Amino acid sequence: MRKVSLSESLQVIRQGSLNWFTGRPVVVSFEVTDSCNCFCRHCDHGGPKDESKQLKPEQYREYMQVFKPCVVQISGGEPMLRDDVIDIVKNIKQSNGLPYIILVSNWALMTEEKYVALHHAGVTQFSVSLDFPDRRHDDFRRYPGLYDHLADLIPRCAKYGFDDIVMNTCIHSENVGEINRAADRAKEWGVNIAYSAYSARRTGCQELFLTRPVDLDTLRSEFDGIRRRQDSTHTIVTPDSTLNQTQEYFERGSAPGCRAGHRFLVVTANGKLQPCSMQFKQYELHEQKLMVEQFTEHNHCDECYVAIRSNLDKTFPQILGENVARYFSFSSGNGKNGSC
């Protein structure tokens, strides 16, 4: 994964530090649509939804002015269903290079031309779902032909050399034995890979959660293989500390101490604030402090360890150190020659 430039690195560190110590969210996730073209087995989105009250691209500027996040995640539903997604990116991206924008998508609607346009509009990282390293991906997402589309498109986009594509494998009981094979596929395609953890809270499906001893043993073995790879390859962007915490989450069956609404929050497609995508108590734009008082300070939910949380569920020095090592450049060049 390429490192961002020196000037952008310093801006991200400065803004992230300021937000951390003043109580503003470090990461904001904009769910720009509730609609999705997939019906994934581990997700509660799927199919068309009412889009009449979605925020317009220019409305995202006000949210940026209020929260000033150093990292923004653009997700859904499926954000590529929005014909104006490029305009959304342009209205979120600022002249100083902030924020670090992650576009989370299944890539079913992505084209080579859209990829280049989104990159130039300001997307820093493309997070692309990969449940299985073969056509089982189609069955899990209930979208025929999706894997073949990825296998054709991703290597072509990788050849541009932007080094900004990260496959994401959400670990569950059916793909826990595929963790290293997914890394093989990412390497073959010339891109990076990260790992996140399944939560049954979204769908209520406990069968996909890792509880059986055999599944937990497989997870340990697969993660050992990933750790060995980290010593010799820069393809895997998930830090070792997150692997450890993810393993602990599955082994204990919970992860207490969540700071949703404080360290991170969700902005829904119609502009409401939620602590996270699986907690549906909503607030208005200027009510984050009220959210922290009413929800975060009394939150006992321990049912997820999603990617946003896992990256913020650490001490400030640890977060800073890991991100400097992986994403930030302190050379005076443009940062495109460095990798992390």
Could you explain the architecture of this structure?
- With 340 residues, the chain is an alpha/beta fold.
- The chain has a single domain (6-326), classed as Alpha-Beta Barrel (TIM Barrel), CATH 3.20.20.70.
- Helices cover 38% and strands 12% of the residues.
- Strands 6-5-4-3-2-1-7-8 form an eight-stranded mixed sheet.
- The radius of gyration is 19 Å and the shape is globular.
- Residues 333-340 have low confidence and may be disordered.
Task: Write a short abstract of this structure.
This protein is an alpha/beta fold. Helix 8 packs antiparallel against helix 9.
Blueprint (SSEs and pairs):
Blueprint: H1 6-22, E1 27-31, H2 60-67, E2 71-75, H3 85-92, E3 100-105, H4 112-121, E4 125-129, H5 136-141, H6 146-158, E5 165-171, H7 179-189, E6 192-197, H8 213-230, H9 240-252, E7 264-267, E8 273-274, H10 288-294, H11 307-312, H12 316-326
Offer a few descriptive terms.
340 residues; alpha/beta; TIM Barrel; 8-stranded mixed β-sheet; 12 helices; 8 strands; globular; disordered C terminus
Strand content: 5-15%
- Taken in chain order, the helices and strands follow as HEHEHEHEHHEHEHHEEHHH
Q: Could you give the count of β-strands?
A: 8
Mean pLDDT: 92
Radius of gyration equals 19 Å
Strand order of the largest sheet: 6-5-4-3-2-1-7-8
